[in-house]
Amino acid sequence: MNREHTDVVVVGSGFGGSVAAYRLAEAGLSVVVLERGQDYPPGTFARTPAQMSRAFWDPAEGLYGLYDVWGFRGFDSVVSSGLGGGSLIYANVLLRKDEEWFVKEEALPEGGYETWPVSRQELDPHYDAVEGMLGGTPYPLDHPAFAGTAKAHAMQDAAAELGLDWQLPSLAVSFAPTPGAEPGLGLPITDPKYGNLHGVQRRSCRLCGECYLGCNDGAKNSLDHTYLSAARHHGADLRTLHEVREIRPRPEGGYEVDYVHHDPLTKARKPESRTISCDRLVLAAGAYGTTYLLLRNKARFPGLSDALGTRFSGNGDLLTFLLRAKDRDRLRPLDASLGPTITSAIRLPDEVDGVPGAGRGAYIEDGGYPNFVGWMVEEADIAHEISRIVRLMRERFAAFFSHAPDTNLSGEVSELIGDGALSVSSLPLLGMGRDVPDGVLRLRGGRLDADWTTKTSEEYFARMRSTMKRIAAVLGATYADNPIWFRKRIITVHPGGGAPMGRHPGEGVCDPFGEVHGFPGLYIADGAALPGAVGPNPSLTIAALSDRMCTRLLEDTGRVHGTRPVGGAVNGTTRGSEVHRGAEERTSLSFTEEMKGFFAEGEHAPGAGEQAGRDHGHRLGFRLTITVDDVDRFLEEPEHTARAEGWIDAAVCGGRCQIERGWFNLFCPGSAPDRKLMRYRLHFTDAKGRPRTLSGWKDIRHRAATRVWPDTTTLFFRIFEGHVMESDDDEAAIAGAGILRLGLDDFARQLTTFRTEGPNGLAALERFGHFFLSELWDVYRPKLFHGHAPDTTDAPQTAAGSAATATDPEAAADFKNGTAPQATGDAQAVADAQAVADAQAVGDFEVVANSETLAFPELVAASEVATDSQVAADSEAAAGNEPSPA
Ligand SMILES: Cc1cc2nc3c(=O)[nH]c(=O)nc-3n(C[C@H](O)[C@H](O)[C@H](O)COP(=O)(O)OP(=O)(O)OC[C@H]3O[C@@H](n4cnc5c(N)ncnc54)[C@H](O)[C@@H]3O)c2cc1C
Ligand code: SF4
User: Fold this and answer.
1) How far is the centre of ligand 1, averaged over its atoms, from the C-alpha of 528 (Å)?
2) Ligand 1 atom nearest to 290, measured from its CA
3) What is the pLDDT of residue 27?
4) Domains (ranges, CATH) in the chain?
5) Among residues 267, 311, 261, which one has the least CA distance to residue 290?
6) What's the predicted TM-score (pTM) here?
């Protein structure tokens, strides 16, 4: 069967998914991220009314936008759909869950208990790692350009007056061009070493307050600019508009994932379903997305914990307003539209902190709204402005209010807020905390539904509202509930739970490391895994739990080694803590290779494909940049895997096709000890939209040293239908075959393209060169000198057959099957080659291998005689006798 396979599929690219994509790709696993939403480079977020009206996620209605709005009976909710998940529209606050709030077996009002099977201590290294990667930094309120942010000062004053803790939390925002540099407004930001997947210049924060609409300046350090760019740098395949519909375990191990690829141009209502399989499946589609996928596919996961759907909570979210703040008799400016959406936080202690009678802890943060309301305002009349805003909001969020008995909120809101609600003296307050996580997500009529109300958290909400009223009083403001509060509804942007972690299947769906009980290799990395409300804004905790999950996963695969990865923590799991080499300590190496040749559709043998392609003038070429991310690790690992990026160009494919994902293996082990392969696997999509895989190999096997040149420069390849991984080659449908060659000119150019990056560039280049030459030496050295019979696979047929039998049983089998190379075309060239092998070339080769300078031109010089052998290779290939990729 022709099916794509990868080490890891990650569903969703929010906080859980992005961290997983980066950590696992960085460790060398092949990772495919399936994200249903689109990507949003800076400058593409909706701002005009027309754009806003399309900015919702509802593919059935032809909408593929950013906001996914849910209306349940007890509450409403907004989450995000896009590459970077909630980080695209979140308010950037990174707060750690308070140490004591990791409660253990805390009784819930209506039975059961909440328990966190992980502690703050265990999570701290992962918090550190995520904060580092997201560039968390407190709002620079003490800096002149930022000091005039009135709302932050107002919150500070109110907290001081009320005896509450106030802080400037870490914000994942760039206030300066580089971390630690002098802050400034609108300054060009320097990209980190791993680059930026959008390739668009980012600028530091200009305090426009538009964070929850998406940052058009790129000042937010959202996941696309950070984890996902780093994941992509390490080879992760990020696929947008790919929505996962079905998941199931495979009988032979691993998982299968069915997905559709939306096309906003055609808006197909029923896009074609495709399947990818993987060894490990990471669910990170958010609390709603992941729980829905598991509920929908539950029958395929027999024995899944009954905790599925439980522990849902809205993280105690409450939105209220302070209106017309006054300082004595004069209006007190709060300037809610100046600054990022949130700048500061007041902490309400919790009973578990040792404050008797305090109840459940919470945070209250200053909110903001953008200063762009011009597009909503046609008249200067303020009352109309409010009505219009509310009307627009109502229209845009139609589904959001769909469950409310009467949806005419505009009048209510206008009446309540009155003139000047969005004036300089008003401020939204955002509350959140440890509400009671006793909600249940379930399927009703095939759709996700939630049984959850504020009832069991009444005490918590009462305390929150009374504290907000006290803040209003201190600031001389009028306190106003959000109008929908009167219907005992809340709006949550922090949904959590649904597939909670627990110590055993009776307690949770997944274990404390996110692995689903009873289903090895299936992980939950997102907000669904939360066993209760985080309390503060949850995304940092979700990301830290995912980081911890990855460390455990990599330990299980034996891939945690070296020192700490730049954006991940390796300790904090119970399985010890070998460390992983940091990016700053690694040296990478890259070079560019260009090869050209012929290809024919319908042919299965490369030689025949080359011949037919040549006859019909069907050329194919590629230009690849091969990148070794960490030379040390590359040399250590037996497969010697590097990334391949670039393009394939062929008229039969419809022109130049970008490589979507590519791998290159240098001298990975072949079917015999003295046989090595250079493998190429390139995924691309042809002009007709058909996914294709070029699978190629250069066959480096023991024979005359003169074969060094043709062997290392001749690439046999097949093109498969679909994006196929190696394990599925045998079953994959072959679209065609051919041969590519590296010309001397191209090789000379290639030598000029070698680059290194990192602390030990020259040494790395030398090690790489030494490896290259010594591997060749290993394969082609004359075995005569080492007590072996010479291998004469280039000798005329009978000699080759007997030599193969004598030295290499597998080669002998190849020979019998007619798959071993046979010098049928040019006996003279073979004889020449043999002669050189026995004499001069061997000596040359030895010189090269022992060379101090390790220059590639010397290798060419040693192989120059091989131009003759090229003729032989051509003949072999033409006869379809090219070696197999085994
Ligand atoms: C306006 C707003 C402000 C916020 N402010 C803050 C804040 O300041 N600090 C904070 O900590 N948190 C904040 N949050 C909450 C934060 O965004 C979420 O807690 C966080 O994003 C959850 O992370 P996650 O990994 O669980 O899922 P998400 O980030 O929601 O990511 C899930 C991803 O999965 C994708 N997906 C869903 N279903 C599928 C499918 N079937 N196939 C493929 N892909 C799928 C979605 O498109 C999405 O990209 C805010 C949220 C909002 C809406
Ligand atoms: S305030 Fe404006 S510029 Fe700053 S992060 Fe938010 S959206 Fe970007």
Assistant:
1) 11
2) 38
3) 94
4) 4-136+209-312+496-556 (3.50.50.60), 586-878 (no CATH)
5) 311
6) 0.68
